[in-house]
Design a protein that fits this description.
- 2 copies of one chain form a homodimer.
- The first copy, chain A, is an alpha/beta fold.
- Helices cover 41% and strands 24% of the residues of chain A.
- The first copy, chain A, contains 16 helices and 17 strands.
- In chain A, the strands form 4 sheets. A 6-stranded mixed β-sheet of chain A has the order 2-1-3-8-7-6, with helices on both faces. The first copy, chain A, has a 5-stranded mixed β-sheet with strand order 14-13-15-16-17, sandwiched between helices. In chain A, strands 10-11-9-12 form a 4-stranded antiparallel β-sheet.
- In chain A, α2 (20-31) runs parallel beside α7, α3 (46-59) packs across α4 (77-84) and α11 (256-266) packs parallel to α16 (388-409).
- Chain A starts with a strand and ends with a helix.
- At the A-B interface, α1, α2, β2, α12 and β14 of A face α2, β2, α8, β10 and α12 of B.
- β14 of chain A pairs antiparallel with β14 (296-302) of chain B, so a sheet runs across the interface.
Chain lengths: 410, 410
């Protein structure tokens, strides 16, 4: 089965938008065993879209199209699809009701142009969009499937998950793959590969697929059997655990912060944070989890010396002598925030995110993290690198992992 | 002049790597007035590469190719290019010297396979790579130019900047494009379109390109003249401002938080935040800006009632009577945090991010925001929607915009 993606939009071609849609779709397709063979990005131009549809039909079985479905004049995908499939637009009453409800919920006036979003090609199966106004459109011709979706990432993802994947699995008789994804933190890809080399060779010799999926701070190890043999996948996963026990924090699609949140919830425990260099990002990751108020109380973002001193009782002479990025300071911060906000656990993070502020002694990327319960504290120094964004995100993940281990050891 | 990009690599197709190369190339091409008409991503497969080269030659004048130039077996681009251009590899002594020096400088052992990197097609002009081992290759045939570059982003950028752009400008006698991108916040695409409909019609009648580029909370309006007439672009941009003065916050590639940060820096002013439903995300956006310590002091993330009450002096009976999501509460929060952290300005955000916690009175997506200076306060209620992630991000952007306007009005 051949699959391709057509991304429509000048904003991608001229680099104002990164084509993360194609990345996500490629990943998700791979998870159900479908390889994306090609991604083509083209203009919102009638002739370009028509040509891409023709080429797509000539070489692929499944053509996934994103973009060009907005209500404005430069969005022409729907019109071109009508021409291509020799069909015309008709009012879809259910979609119109959805759209009116969508605007009502948001207290926004309903404009005439929004009606156009309910005009859909007769020849397609409509995939309802509950998070926006542009419907998905599923066309079939000679066994080939075309799906058109909006380019807004969360709308596209919603449509893929609720409409496209279920229909694709049915239509193309997709075998369920047997797979597990083991999540590791704290070791780079090449170091990990060295430790598990023998195991990996045996996994591959068995005919299983094995992939390293790195993202900042994490490496996911995905083991797949395309014939659906879950037992063999389980066997090798179980052999993997004792090889790298201290680096595995979970499996599947759970994040590090969700792992920590689950530990806290299981214990009816609460957490507070004192963040310096991460500037709120660690708290954000925890509070992005729905229902976080059951375990998260609050944080102080103590960016300045003043706030560290006045709000969290770090002695000024200690700040001057040891610097804000020091074991002594993060241990005071974690202790003070835990007491002040009256929580079971706390985290404190202080580091040099960069690009400036580094010294010979403490170069950019140096971060001290302290994790604490009532009776125990663990503090650790990290050296991440010279990219500000990565230093912030890796510090947050490392802090969660430090507290996760502390909780498990208690 | 027609231009296209061919990106070679399975890792992009299956979503392990985001195609940021194409994004960067599209941006940089646009800056010198060349529009990228198409980006095609394909496998490291001989037939796919040959087909893409043929199609590229048939429709484009400039074909920029990245990827597949490494020293390993799955890198076949160079071989396929030799076939396509009917040429063969020969040892390039200067490149070999470069590569040997490259390894010596980095104290890395020189492997036999690295010699292969100095074997280059006879028919091409070699573009020397001083930051890696894969050379750029410039081919010409019937006035059409093909350039092959490695996929490692900093190597590709180095080759584009030092080799490709100078030769392209010369070869194609490039005109600069005229364009401006006006950034708006607070109105959806269709509402904006309705207000500026007449203006948009005139822009298009004039032959200018005009595009809406939406992202959560923002809509960018890009106006372009492909013949480089900046005056005509400026004329229409100036006519746009009075039509939507309250929605425009900047131009170009600046973000809302950078706009606010610049206003603060210009005034030597500082900011603090009291965040409830945004859980640290607004502070994160501000502290993600390098050098943020010059204007950002700190925040309290007052997620629980307790912290609102004990740390920010919100009376318990007010919380019980009006609820945490109320004008009264956010006004106390913005006042208390500003005084406590001794800053010129402050922001307070309290809302119902969802998915739970909504009531008939205050459905999910209801957010109160207060922005404050020493002498002035503005508070506003927003109704965003039912997506937690978007409610968090839109609340942060809306809070920055509220404070931005307050500062400008002072």
């Amino acid at each position: 089965m051949k699959t391709e993606i057509i991304s429509i939009g000048d904003e991608i071609l001229i680099g104002q938008t990164v084509n993360t849609n194609a990345t996500w779709m490629g990943q998700e397709l791979a998870k159900i065993g479908i390889k994306n063979n090609r991604t083509t990005t083209i203009s919102d131009s009638e002739s370009e879209i028509l040509e891409a549809l023709k080429l797509g039909e000539s070489r692929s079985d499944l053509i996934l199209i994103t973009g060009g479905l907005g209500p404005t004049k430069d969005d022409i995908t729907k019109k071109v699809l009508c021409d291509y499939f020799n069909t015309e637009l008709e009012l879809n009453q259910e979609v119109l009701t959805d759209i009116q409800a969508y605007f009502k919920l948001r207290n926004k006036p309903f404009l005439e142009s929004n009606n156009l979003q309910a005009m859909l090609p007769k020849a397609c199966t409509v995939l309802r969009n509950h998070v926006g106004t542009a419907s998905g459109m599923w066309f079939e011709r000679n066994g080939k499937v075309f799906v058109s979706m909006p380019g807004v990432p969360y709308e596209m993802k919603h449509l893929m998950e609720t409409g496209v994947f279920p229909k694709v699995k049915e239509q193309f008789g997709i075998n369920e793959l047997a797979h597990r994804t083991v999540l590791t933190h704290g070791l780079g890809e090449s170091f990990l590969a060295e430790i598990i080399e023998d195991w990996e060779n045996r996994v591959r010799a068995e005919g299983l697929d094995m992939a390293y999926l790195p993202s900042p701070g994490l490496v996911k190890l995905r083991i797949t059997n395309t014939e659906g043999n879950q037992q063999i996948v389980d066997k090798y996963c179980e052999e993997l655990y004792p090889l790298i026990p201290e680096y595995i924090f979970g499996e599947g699609i759970i994040t590090m912060q969700e792992t920590l949140a689950n530990l806290l919830k299981e214990r009816n425990a609460t957490i507070s944070l004192a963040e310096s260099c991460t500037g709120g990002f660690a708290s954000h990751l925890l509070t992005a989890i729905p229902g976080s108020s059951s375990f998260y109380e609050g944080s102080i973002i103590c960016y300045s010396y003043d706030i560290k001193e006045k709000e969290l009782n770090v002695p000024k002479d200690l700040l001057l002598k040891k610097g804000a990025v020091s074991e002594e300071v993060v241990e005071i911060l974690s202790e003070e925030i835990r007491k002040k906000y009256n929580t079971n656990y706390s985290i404190a993070i202080s580091g040099i995110a960069g690009p400036t502020g580094g010294t010979d002694d403490k170069p950019v990327g140096t971060v001290w993290i302290s994790a604490r319960s009532k009776n125990k504290v663990v503090s650790k120094k990290f050296s991440f690198g010279n990219n500000r964004e990565r230093n912030i995100s890796q510090s947050a993940l490392a802090s969660f992992n430090l507290l996760r281990k502390l909780i498990l050891e208690e």
